Amino acid sequence: MKEKKVKMKFTDFECNLLINGIFEWRNMLLADGKPTEDVDALILKIIKKSEGK
After folding, report:
1. Are 29 and 35 in contact (CB under 8 A)?
2. What's the domain range around 39?
3. Along the 53 residues of the chain, how does pLDDT read in single tens digits?
4. Fewer C-beta neighbours within 10 Å, C or N terminus of the chain?
5. Is residue 45 part of a domain?
6. What is the model's pLDDT at position 32?
7. DSSP string over 7-48
8. What's the alpha-carbon Rg for the chain, to the nearest Å?
9. Residue 23, pLDDT score
10. Residue 4 domain-assigned?
11. How far is it, in rounded angstroms, from Cα 16 to Cα 43?
12. Does 5 reside within a domain?
């Protein structure tokens, strides 16, 4: 099955808001003892894309 890609454009403020929300979600996963590898990968992708504007 082919992976579907979605491209979205965010302002710097929206990008920071998104990253902060995902970090909160990651912290909740850590508190519950759940894995965070996929969330970590998502955070890195967002940061790399936002730096390459």
Report:
1. yes
2. 12-51
3. 788 888 888 888 998 899 999 999 999 999 999 999 999 999 898 888 877 75
4. N
5. yes
6. 97
7. -----HHHHHHHHHHHHHHHHHHHHTT---HHHHHHHHHHHH
8. 13
9. 95
10. no
11. 11
12. no
| pLDDT value for 48 | 85
Residue 31: per-residue pLDDT:
97
Tokens read off for 38: 């996929």
40 neighbors 30 (Cβ within 8 angstroms): no
Give the tokens for residue 31: 């508190």
Residue 40: both structure tokens together? 């970590």
Two tokens, residue 6: 């979605």
CB 46 within 8 Å of CB 7: no
The amino acid at residue 27 is: N
- Domain count for the chain: 1
Residue 3 located in a structural domain? no
Give the SS3 label for residue 53.
coil
- Determine the pLDDT at residue 38: 94
